[in-house]
Write a structure and sequence with these properties.
The complex is a heterotetramer, with two copies of chain A and two copies of chain B.
Chain A: H1 4-13, E1 21-24, E2 43-46, E3 50-55, E4 72-82, H2 85-93, E5 99-102, E6 106-108, E7 113-114, H3 129-135, E8 139-142, E9 154-155, E10 170-172, E11 176-181, E12 184-190, H4 196-201, E13 207-208, E14 215-216
Parallel strand pairs in A: 1-2, 1-5, 5-8, 6-9, 8-10, 12-13, 12-14
Antiparallel strand pairs in A: 2-3, 3-4, 6-7, 10-11, 11-12
Chain B: H1 11-14, E1 23-26, H2 36-45, E2 50-53, H3 64-69, E3 73-78, H4 85-92, E4 97-100, H5 103-114, E5 119-122, E6 135-139, E7 142-148, E8 152-159, E9 161-163, E10 168-169, H6 178-181, E11 185-192, E12 195-196, E13 215-218, H7 221-224, E14 231-232
Classes of the chains: A alpha/beta, B alpha/beta.
């Protein structure tokens, strides 16, 4: 049976189209790497200074000078380039990354994102998240629909310090694919076998659902 | 954004849909790095009231010199016109409006747009003639002038070598303003002598990563080496 | 300024005369590009109350992690401590004062000092928590926060290859903050695996021209490859 | 017999010491190139983007991508590097150039320099002169002592728009070597055969002359 994470990642891979430049956030989004077809003209950006990274293949020796922003050994694919941190963030701030996938502690129906700090509990620093969230052309959040205590992560309004406001275009969880719209979160697809009511119960935000157009994933 | 697999095109396609009144950055310091083939195509396509941003005005009869002489340029933002007496005459007669910036500040104003900043703080030229009209602020005990970022609708750059995705490598003193302008416009058109398959350019030697580039056009040396002022020291 | 023909020296000479309380930039993003041999020499030479500027805090027990654990660091200006729980504990217990900047702004603050500007204008983080304490101005219809330049007394950088004059070439993702820091301190000390005769580095591939570099120290791979957190994706 | 320009350049070459980075302004200073010994560890910076240029030798083919800031074909020497305009001026603004030699329309006893504009007559733009004059560690002016009408170029106070104020350390003309000091221009050396009174007459500035210490060149 497909795990929640596999369901999210399989669906997320369909967000990437041939010819794009993509950034993968630390954590779950990084694993999307393994779901992108090899034969696509897609370059994955990692903000520590590489455009065009790919997972290291079995038997391929690690290169200690070649890591991604999460500290994992990577390799590069044809068309890759490496550069300093100023150049790397120039691409980000100038919206030259087509789509970035990021995790979330909280995300809300206005498209606000909180994923860097839990006051008093977790504050390792902002890293590159703020600039990615604010500036990348399209931000897709990949996260579990609820936290480990079962509380909704999809909210009417974020409570934690924001990474950036009104930055999220789409949210993909194991339960649904939702687009941020002025009227609320428009549910585009629901997970196979999940009822609408169960989705509403797991969510603390205004969900717009047109069952006649609803997809399944 | 232009897709990675759709950047290589011919001169006409690359230069299509540039509007009258567009602001266009042009690489090059004198002849080296000047995208002469793209400029000749711009001349042929007829837009008027252009604002050009270039370090200099090339020489009479070549590069942006041709555009100025053809009456196509309304405004020139530059650092120095020393090699082009016809451009100086056009300035003096009021045919073109010229704004001068110190060369390094011009470079940084362009880079500033290229990296997504709004401007920078400099102490260059405070209390000289070029300080007129600049805003000044005090910060941490010093006085600084604010130089706003300088962006363009289109940038025309010249690279020695490229790949199909738009990664660029410049050569020698043909680099100059090209890597900065290649980041600073909505649409960036690169001419180059050679377009490689992705993977053939050594990754540590790429100067401009492909993310910034809209179109790549192959040109021959003959169409892009102009300039008569060159001499020995 | 250090003369071109007097830059190559040993670790002790390179690291001599760094004061208590000095502000020191350290290259590297995680392990790649971290000048581990220079940091070990800094640890051995005993200065206290240091202010360090580095993207991250390395990992426990290596790099600047050692300096923090030895109680030698008063303040850390950084972007992210995610790989170093002992640094986070030192921050939470008040042993070290930590200032966080968004990673790209940290890079630009350093570059800003490196190119001789006083600061730059950004729209990153306006109305978020990191905006506290920043000055904001209006310019050409937009609101911009002023980020002051960030300079240091000393920068410690790692390069793959150098020549005797101090020209530097970085490799792969070991570049990161190194080229920026190499411009931004009064005194810049570079460790490298190989020091060539001037003329042996291809001129189009030099990342940091020698003008910025004070000392060049040759180190072996064993003394400069540390880091346990590396893993596959 | 040695020409005025040769006298200036021969003397100026003695300002450069082994291990330095040097910038040569357009015009007379560029010719200093030919007066620097080949065996010195000296790198000449040209602000269009090269550190380590040298004159092209006889028989050496010109490289159309390799010019100096005056548009002359150059070559490079061992230890050279090339870079973009931002990097080139970073070196200048950060005072990483040890000494620059520049021409002058006017230079005064406070160390002010005017060499870019003659209102109504000559205004081709500022180029890199302002940043060089303001920021290079040591600025040495190389110019004729008087203009072509015989008027002094060495003044109490510049009249033309300034390139930079209080930037000049030393002035070398065919008549004298003068240092800018708080009390006036201290004459360090006088050209062979030139009398003190003749020097004073050719100059419109306060000259401090201690004949007991005066050198000749």
């Amino acid at each position: 049976m497909i795990s929640d994470q596999q369901r999210i990642l399989t669906r997320a891979a369909r967000e990437v189209t041939d010819g794009q430049i993509v950034n993968l956030g630390i954590g779950l989004p990084t694993r999307l790497f393994h779901y992108l077809p090899d034969d696509m003209n897609v370059l994955v950006h990692s903000e520590n200074g590489v455009l065009g990274c790919r997972p290291r293949q079995e038997g391929e020796l690690p290169d200690s000078d070649m890591i991604d922003s999460g500290g994992a050994y990577i390799a590069t694919r044809a068309g890759a380039s490496v550069f300093d941190s100023a150049m790397s963030f120039a691409m980000i701030r100038r919206s030259r990354i087509d789509v970035t996938f990021m995790g979330a502690f909280e995300v809300d129906q206005e498209g606000n994102l909180a994923n860097w700090k839990i006051p008093g509990k977790f504050s390792p620093g902002i890293g590159g998240a703020m600039e990615l969230a604010q500036k990348v052309a399209r931000l897709v959040v990949l996260c579990s629909h609820n936290d480990k205590h079962g509380n909704p992560k999809i909210l009417t309004r974020c409570q934690l310090p924001l990474t950036a406001s009104r930055c999220v275009a789409r949210i993909i969880t194991e339960k649904a694919v939702m687009d941020v719209t002025p009227a609320g979160l428009e549910v585009v697809e629901v997970a196979e076998g999940l009822g609408i009511e169960a989705l509403r119960e797991a969510t603390n935000a205004t969900l717009l659902i047109d069952e006649s157009r609803l997809g399944r994933f | 954004m232009t897709l990675l697999n759709q950047k290589v095109c011919d001169l006409d396609a690359a230069m299509a849909n540039i509007s009258d009144g567009a602001t266009i950055m042009v690489g090059g310091f004198g002849s080296p790095g000047t995208p002469f083939a793209l400029l000749d195509a711009l001349l042929a396509s007829g837009q008027r009231n252009l604002t050009l941003i270039k370090n200099d005005a090339n020489e009479p009869g070549i590069g942006i010199g041709k555009l100025i002489e053809a009456g196509r340029v309304k405004r020139l933002i530059t650092s120095h016109l020393g090699l082009n007496r016809t451009a100086i005459e056009a300035m003096n007669s009021g045919e073109i409006e010229v704004t001068f910036h110190p060369q390094g500040l011009l470079a940084e104003k362009i880079r500033c747009a290229g990296v997504g900043h709004g401007g920078f703080l400099t102490d260059i030229g405070i209390s000289t003639e070029i300080a007129e009209g600049r805003h000044e602020i005090n910060l941490e005990g010093g006085t600084w002038a604010i130089e706003p970022a300088l962006q363009a609708d289109v940038a025309l750059v010249h690279a020695e070598r490229a790949d199909r995705y738009g990664n660029l490598i410049y050569r020698a003193t043909a680099s100059n303003f090209n890597p900065l302008m290649a980041m600073a416009a909505e649409r960036v058109i690169a001419q180059t002598y050679r377009i490689d398959t992705p993977g053939n350019l050594p990754i540590d030697t790429i100067h401009t990563p492909c993310a910034f580039i809209s179109h790549v056009v192959q040109v021959d040396h003959a169409s892009s080496q102009q300039g008569a002022c060159l001499h020995d020291l």
